[in-house]
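Anyone able to model this chain together with adenosine-5'-triphosphate?
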Amino acid sequence: MNGVTNISNDERHGAAIELRSVSKSYGAIQAVDRVDLRVERGEIFGLIGHNGAGKSTLFKMMLGLTPASSGEILINGGSVAGKGFRATRRALGYLPENVVLYDNLSGLETLKFFARLKGADLKQCAPTLERVGLAHAGNRPLREYSKGMRQRLGFAQALLGKPQVLFLDEPTNGLDPQAIRDFYFVLRDLRDSGVTILITSHILAELQERVDRLAIMVAGRIQALGTVQGLREQQQAPLQIELRLSEVDAVFARQALSELNGVSCSSSTLGLSVSCPREAKLAVLGVATGLGARLLDLTIAEPSLEDLFFELGKARE
Ligand SMILES: Nc1ncnc2c1ncn2[C@@H]1O[C@H](COP(=O)(O)OP(=O)(O)OP(=O)(O)O)[C@@H](O)[C@H]1O
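re: yes, here you go
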C-alpha cells in the first residue's frame, strides 16, 4: 500500500498544477463542474472555451483568489486552501483579463508599485520593462499609453518576482501582430527555463501553433484535452484537400471521389474542395495523382483549432 502512496506523491510533485474534481457554483450557476486536470512543469497550456465557459473562474481558483465549492487544487504539490499557500502564491504570476492601472503613474512607477505589493526586488522593474518592449516608455505616464502598451505593462507586472507558474487571461488583447510575436517569444523563453504557463485566448489561430497542450471547456466542464494533433485524431476531424482543376476535370474527379467512403466534394474557385476522413487521405491522393497533368495543384489542410472547437460544439448539439 505504501508503494502506491509513494508513486502518487511522486507524480504529485512532478505536476505544476493538479485539479481533482474541482467545482465552483455561484448560487444556481455552476461555473466550473468537476474538473480534473494535470499540467506538467514547463508546459505552455492553453485553456479555451466560449464566453462564460468557466475559464476565468478556474484561473481564480487556481490562484487562490476565490475558493472552490468542492474538489482539490494543488500548485507545485501544495494545496491552494492550505496554510502554506501564501508562500506558494509568491511563485505565481497573474495577468487578469482586465488589469487595473493608474493613469497618473509612469510605467516604471507602476511596476515598482506592483513589485512592493508582491515583495519582489525593485531592481527587477527596469529589466522587466525592457523584456516586454517598454524600456523607451518607462517614464511616461500611463494616460499616454496605447491599449497594447498597457497590455504589455500588465504582462510585465505578472513577470515580477520570477514566477514559476504564470496565469495569463487573454494576454494578447490589443496587441499588434509584431507584439504578439514578441510576446510568444518571451513565453517560449520562460517555458525553456522551466516556467509553467497557462493561457486563455479567444484567438484560436494564435494558440494553435504555440501551446504544448490545451483543454476545451464547455459549460464549466473540460470536453477535450490534449495536443492540437491529438485532438484532431480524437475527434476524427476531416481533412480538407483542395484540387486545382479545370471545370471538366473537376466533374470527372468528383465522380471518382464519390466512390470513396466518407469523402464529400464541393465546387470551389480553384476546382474541387474535398472533405475526407484521415484514413481516406491516401485513397483521395491516389485519385488525384491519377489525373496526371490535368491536376494543376493540390493543397492539404489539417483541421484548425477553430474547426475542432466548432466540431465539438456540433457533436454536443
Ligand atoms: N462573481 C460571480 N458571481 C456570479 N456569477 C459569476 C461570477 N463570476 C463568474 N460568474 C459566472 O460563472 C460563469 C463562468 O464565468 P467565467 O468568467 O469563468 O467565464 P469565462 O470562460 O472566463 O468567460 P469569458 O470568455 O467571457 O471571459 C458565467 O456564467 C458567469 O456569469
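The longest helix spans residues 177-192.
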